[in-house]
Amino acid sequence: MTKYSRGIPRIGGKKALLPVLLPILEYTAKQKKLNLFIDGCTGGMKVVANIDVTLFSEGLIANDLEPGIANLAKVFGDSTQVKRLYVKIENLLKDIDSNKVNALDFFNEANKFIKKDAKKRKDNLPTSPDKFLSAFLTFFITYSHTYSNANCFYQHALKKNLFDYKAHEKCLSYVDTFRKITVRNESFLDLIDEYGCREDILFYIDPPYVLEAMTSGEQYLFGLEDKLQQEMVDKLTSQNFKARVFISGWENKIYKKLERGGFNKYYVANTHVATANSSGKIGRKEAEMLWSNVMVPTRLLPDASELRAALAKNEEDIRNQNEVDLASYEDEILRANTAKARAGERLAKAEARIATKFANQSVASSELLKETLIAMNSKAVLEKEVGIAIKQEVGAAILDIVKYNQAIAKLELEKEKKLKISNSDANLMKLRQENRLKGKK
Hints:
Rossmann fold, 2 domains
């Protein structure tokens, strides 16, 4: 099995951080002789599934408030259930491939089920009794949503992850690891209350990023309100908290209290932000920090100056790409407006030609009416032909104008989104610069 391959992909997951994070956690466990590891917000399970379980005499706990995640972790630890999951996914893929099931419709219905179940758990209400169904739907959603939004279906992800890569087949090898993990489906705040008084416990907490640091909060199925982030910080800095803890996140105001309470802050990586710039060519990165009440040796940490230089380069690339994108939108809007003007000219000419036809036909019809009733029938036929001409010429021109108006509206909307993202990037960059200046002081 590939190193660090156990677990599932999640937005905000820590796979890229594992080469730095795991040695720090394992070093702490050895040095402090800790007995139990608790992954408070396990999400994609990457940390708890890849840490050395032999370091902890009381084992590992994987906790997540989302029922689907907790149920899926339990399935991974049961050989019968994980085989059942494999067969269920295989049958679904066959139905999708034969068009018996529409993948997008299935995704949307699964997403509704998972979100409804998660809200029930959040509100302390009974969740779905069908734990396997919850796990199965969670697995499908995980491998078929876009890379930046867990609520949006992405056909390419489905094809790549399940049809081609066969992610469900890889899970058959997870059993030996996950059967050693105790799974909990609770708020991580409750686990802090339960185990925080023990000095022999190691917590790793990776909550959803604080909303202040996000471009938007729509990427997660469920985010974490600021008041709960603040409650976490209050609990970790209280005199009753004795355990060792590491918290992952981006720079934010709420976590400043951790630093004032004696926590150390370590710059450990530059991680991709869930939303890329609208062109999708360059993904924005953010400085990933670890806050801890444990001292970490410098040798276990990456070179912070290299990380800062790489982050600055990423910011410059984003700015340059934004300028290119905005210029491109301006060009497209100009071309659409030009095409719209040409369509307007066509409409005016068509109307002029039709007006002339009506004038000529009116004179001819008057003369014919004086002569015979047959001429009246002729006029009716001619007027019908003129009516058809109106529908064909005017209708085509109007449809063209509607089409160009829609294209222009779409381009203007994309331009507005780009400007918002560009402004958001600028604000985040400004905030980082202020934090750097404060750090230097």
